[in-house]
Design brief:
Elements (H helix, E strand, L loop, with lengths): L18 H8 L10 H18 L3 H12 L4 H21 L7 E8 L4 E7 L6
Antiparallel strand pairs: 1-2
Helix pairs in contact: 2-4
């Protein structure tokens, strides 16, 4: 049998603005004018990681950083960590009201531009 309907907790849906638009605005400092698909993918990847790190409690974030840095080549760790810290500050200061974790995204190249579709978690963080 399925779950008891009375025990299911409902959360208000994310704000009316699409999370794909929010994520692209959030990633804007990483998206130079005229960048192409490879740069855009890297920027959105980095932005999504920073977004989710910003939703974590400090101790959990520190552990996640440590784990993440294992997968970043040594030569790039310092600059990548600096970029993530800057984005986390951007999230906390400019996008604090958006607290749904980003589970994934799909990017579609549309010639001169790109489209991003974002999947968010089942419930908000914090």
């Amino acid at each position: 049998m399925g779950p008891d309907i009375a025990s299911i907790q409902l959360y208000p849906a994310p704000k009316k603005e699409k999370y794909s638009d929010i994520l692209v605005r959030f990633a804007a400092p990483l998206l130079p004018p005229g960048s192409r698909q490879l740069n855009e993918n890297a920027a959105i990847d980095t932005a999504a990681i920073a977004w989710n790190l910003a939703l974590m409690e400090p101790a959990e974030r520190a552990a996640a950083f440590k784990e993440l840095m294992k997968y970043i080549p040594w030569l790039f760790r310092w600059s990548y960590k600096r970029k993530l810290h800057a984005l986390i500050q951007r999230k906390e200061s400019m996008f604090a009201e958006y607290n749904w974790p980003i589970l994934g995204y799909q990017m579609t190249d549309e010639g001169e531009t790109f489209r991003v579709e974002v999947q968010v978690g089942l419930r908000p963080s914090k």
